[in-house]
């Protein structure tokens, strides 16, 4: 989503508006194409996905990821002065909050199930 927002904001930007900005490094490697990387330019890889084959640990990891995404959206909102971008980021931030809540509810259900006495 963020890549799409950046693309829409930069697709028609002339090169003289790109030179000397933080976006110039991205442009040098990828042009104006969306390319998933963090703010430091580190490309996204599957190593960002964590799984322990333990539902409790995995749900905690999911919840942490939602909070990290929420914090990133909040930082981006503070950096933006475009009302349309801010509205989109607010929507995405709220979506992360709801995801966090749903993972929390799922965690409680899984913990209850794992702690209940099993009858065979």
UniProtKB/TrEMBL annotation:
The keyword Cytoplasm does not apply. InterPro entries: Ferritin-like (IPR012347), Ferritin-like_SF (IPR009078), Mn_catalase (IPR007760). Keywords: Manganese, Metal-binding. The keyword Metal-binding applies. Binds 2 manganese ions per subunit. GO terms for molecular function: metal ion binding. Mn(2+) 1 binds at residue 99. This is Manganese catalase family protein. The lineage of its organism: Bacteria, Bacillati, Bacillota, Tissierellia, Tissierellales.
